[in-house]
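Sequence in, structure out. Go.
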Amino acid sequence: LDAETICDEVISALHHGDTWHDDVVLLVVKNSPHDRNTYDDHHPSDPLELSRIRASVREWLTSREIDEPVIDDVIIALGEATSNVVRHAYVDGNSGGMRVRITVADSSVDVAVSDQGTWRAPSPDGGGMGLVSIESIADDVDLSTTPDGTALRFRIALGGSLPLVLVLVAS
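Output:
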């Protein structure tokens, strides 16, 4: 039943007559099926959506009192992962979405970004540094591809991050 129906039924059951002899307050609370420690949202694969995703996740992690250096690492790695979906997942004019799921566990922030696009192998000419950047920030990076899409999972420890040193060698 919806909240309004529940209120109507309770008020009808309590009310006997035309007038009330005292004030009545009725509060109906609906439990959310979502776990407080899990962020789970679907987003369009659109470049304009990337900053919204980062802002939403930053706000969510901040509300869970995650340390700022950990939040920064999550946002950097998440930004790379979601940018890869926008750039690479949907080809030949196809469009689609992505799912971002983040769970705050006892000792880590676990992130999963998935799409229903087509995996493309890295170009022989080289490519971006997105996955390399994620691997330098996160632990337990797992990239899996199927005909139904791609999923990238990674974990960032809650104990703080090590300084990021990225060395690029041009040949």
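Check: The chain has a mean pLDDT of 82. The helical segments are 3-14, 50-63, 68-89, 130-137.
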